Amino acid sequence: MSKHIFQTEVNQLLDLMIHSLYSNKEIFLRELISNASDALEKLQYLTHTDDSYKYLSYTPRINVILDKEERKIIVTDNGIGMNEAELTDNLGTIARSGTKGFLNNMVGDKKKDSALIGQFGVGFYSAFMVAKEIHVSSMKALEQNTHLWKSDGKGEYEISTSDAPQEEFGTRISVFLKDDAEEFLEHYRIKEIIRRYSDHIPFPIFLHYKQKEYDKDHKETGETQKEEQVNKASALWRLSKSAIKDEEYKEFYKSLSHDSDDPLLWVHTKIEGGLEYTTLFYFPKKAPFDLYRADYRSGVKLYVKRVFITDDDKELLPTYLRFVRGIIDSEDLPLNVSREVLQQNKILANIKSASTKKILSEIENIANDEESYKSFYKEYGRVLKEGLYGDFENRERLMELMRFPSSTNEELVSFKTYKARMQEGQKAIYYILMQSGQSIHESPLLERFKKKNIEVLYFNEEIDTIVMPSVHEYQGVKLYAIDSKEADEEFADEKVSADEEKRFEGLISTFKESLSEKVEDVRLSKKMVDSPVCIVYSDSSNIALKNLMRQMGQTAQIPESKPILEINPDHSIFTKLLLADDDTRIREYALLLFEEALLLENGSLADAGDFVKRINKVLERSV
Ligand code: ADP
């Protein structure tokens, strides 16, 4: 016998569950049955694909046994089973860093945490909501030993070789119920729970319980052992739509996704003639918690003729649709299709492409009502943007689904709306690419656009800086950044004159001396109306590259491109500075103006102290 302690995150999860999910304890059974069903599917897959499992004979089934004397409920399956190492790995740790990160981000606010945990599969550990103690006995298929895992959920578990070896491979989970969980010994209660959550698990679930017998005077005469199949065991997606109630769709979604909330919507499609397949896709109401984690879990399961193939293929749909949950069941793929070659499979590529179009048209339907699209976009707008980068086939459709804040509107706008209200003669769609947290409304770069009433889109999410520079056009109209050369053409009538260049020559060279290493250049520009100065970069699309590197944690290698200080020759500060003759002061003003521009651009200053000292000096002089 060996003793082990749970990984920290397991303890966190256990604690959270007991405090946050207590109002919905019954879901523990759904979780255990869903694990049993996964184990059966895994073994079934191996019997189709792996020669060593070919002659294994078994009839897949799940048993739920109620034992009133010992106050325990037992869930058994004859699936793949676990050996000693797997028991430790699977029931003592949380492997995926995504889940770990999620747990570490919990704020300790019970209300918020319980809303979060709904989106995240609680799994096996949820049984500790109702259990004083849990015993897991398991024998791996094709192996000989039975191992026993035991824990009371209080920080430790132990593993031993079982002195009651199993006759058949598979797993047997005994849940010793807490005093306040007695309801789960009642067969009618358990039937209700199984039918609600697990009716369409593709394997039969048998309930075993004892029923008391009475004579005609209501005197107890004994007990009979009952065994009955409780669920329909029909794959829901294979039934015809008209035979499925909304409630059934919803519960199936919950058992598939572990989400405790109803789905936003579902699309059930059966394709015949040519390729034959069925798809059932769901949109969760809230974005899955691991949507932006590298080790996110795929939400779509692949079946071939109702036989489970994989739930771990991230290419069944394009990655920007990774929030979709559901099932693809093909008639045409060979049953023994190996997971490794799925990627190159033409049939699957075909299904993927058609499914993508189907899902996009469902999103377009939501977008027909801007009000409901708002909440959808809040959850999924960011991930859809990734599609602009990767899915060229559907780029036009995705473009229509984008929404951005803009300089003239409180509401998010689409490219379509933007285009419809462009000014007469306006040459392009303009956008400002921003660092996150930047205060756009004050950007001096916007001033000339405001003056001419030209709307500017705010590309203000991190993903925008990566994806949007690859988008050059919307329906024949070019897209330009407001600080690009191309944008200057919109303002061709406002060029810096030769006369201005000449008058400012001296001042600019003093500015350059003062700022020297800090800037790439100092020059005149007509970009501003009200502001004296602004900052631009010679290659603004670099922002994207830098953000990408920052995201990947390569801060050291980020090339530092120096800012260019642009000066508004029409601003009264400069008309006055032209007349000044104290070079020391001009240098000081140069620094101040530069820092001011940096502040507007970044929202913060590296040397705030110096800046304040300089301001104070100027104040002292002017008071
Ligand atoms: P999840 O099912 O979300 O992965 P769980 O905590 O419920 O998380 O289970 C952890 C792992 O334990 C599963 O991924 C599976 O490998 C294993 N496991 C759980 N129950 C069984 C079972 N009945 N048979 C075989 N393996 C199981």
Helices and strands: which structural class?
Answer: alpha+beta
Low-pLDDT runs of 5+ residues are none
Strand order of the largest sheet: 1-6-5-4-7-3-2-8-9
The ligands bound in this entry are: adenosine-5'-diphosphate
Oligomer classification: single chain
Query: How many H/I helical runs?
Result: 19
Beta-strand share of residues: 15-25%
Quick one: how many beta strands? 23
**The biggest beta sheet, please?**
9 strands, mixed
Helix content: 25-40%
Mean pLDDT: 89
Radius of gyration using CA atoms only? 32 Å
What gross morphology would you assign?
elongated
Distance between the termini: 83 Å
Could you give a short description of this structure?
With 623 residues, this protein is of the alpha+beta class. It has 19 helices and 23 strands.
How would you portray this structure in words?
- Helices cover 36% and strands 21% of the residues.
- It contains 19 helices and 23 strands.
- The strands form 5 sheets. A 9-stranded mixed β-sheet has the order 1-6-5-4-7-3-2-8-9, with helices on one face. The protein has a 5-stranded mixed β-sheet with strand order 10-11-14-12-13, with helices on both faces. A 4-stranded mixed β-sheet has the order 18-17-20-19.
- It is elongated and about 115 Å long.
- Bound molecules: adenosine-5'-diphosphate.
SSE order and pairing:
Blueprint: E1 2-5, H1 8-20, H2 27-49, E2 62-67, E3 72-77, H3 84-92, H4 97-104, H5 110-117, E4 131-139, E5 146-151, E6 156-161, E7 170-177, H6 187-198, E8 205-214, E9 220-229, H7 246-257, E10 263-271, E11 277-284, E12 300-304, E13 307-310, E14 325-330, H8 346-367, H9 370-390, H10 395-401, E15 404-406, E16 409-413, H11 415-420, E17 429-433, H12 447-451, E18 456-459, H13 462-467, E19 473-474, E20 477-481, H14 485-489, H15 498-515, E21 521-524, E22 533-536, H16 542-551, E23 564-567, H17 572-577, H18 583-602, H19 608-622
Parallel strand pairs: 2-8, 12-14, 17-18, 17-20, 21-23
Antiparallel strand pairs: 1-6, 2-3, 3-7, 4-5, 4-7, 5-6, 8-9, 10-11, 11-14, 12-13, 15-16, 19-20, 22-23
Helix pairs in contact: 1-5, 2-6, 9-10, 15-18
The structure holds adenosine-5'-diphosphate.
Residues 31, 35-36, 39, 77, 79-82, 90-91, 121, 123-125, 171 line the site of adenosine-5'-diphosphate.
